[in-house]
Amino acid sequence: MLRRLVAGLAAIVLVAEAAVLVLVHIVLGRTTANQSMSIAGSDPDVMSKATYAMGAGMGAFLVLCAVLAAVAAIRDRSPGRFGRVVLIGAAVTHAVLGILAVGLVGWAAFATLMLILCLLVLILTLYPAARHGDDGDAGGDPGADAPPLPPTPPYGELKPTSP
């Protein structure tokens, strides 16, 4: 129940974050185009279009993360290998942006980014990682041929190894 709630809430928050970031990049792109700003002689048209492209790319990435979280919530299963890699990438990105946001934007932005980071980490930790053989692969468990470990001795029979 908690896993589905966290994954669903993360999906909603990620879609909202994607919408806000796309809107911010649209405003930045229009401002760059309207002011004819250039940095070190670069073309303002290229800068504004690059800003639009970056906003679209970030929005698409966050929507992909939201879809993966929503699928995990609906199925109540762990995201696959690709999904986990994407969500880990999003978590690392939010951690780095949170560090930068403290100095550049303020504590409110830091708190928001850390909230989203916590939701992503909760998705990754509440759903156990799928085993290698559970995805329908014929490979099976790579450690299946290893001999079993010997039983641990009772507490009283443990001896120190250093002299």
UniProtKB/TrEMBL annotation:
* Listed transmembrane segments: 53-73, 85-102, 108-127
Spell out the residue ranges making up region: Disordered. Answer: 135-163
Q: Where is the composition biased (Pro residues)?
A: 145-154
Q: Which UniProt keywords apply?
A: Membrane, Transmembrane, Transmembrane helix
Output this protein's name. Integral membrane protein
Classification of source organism: Bacteria, Bacillati, Actinomycetota, Actinomycetes, Kitasatosporales
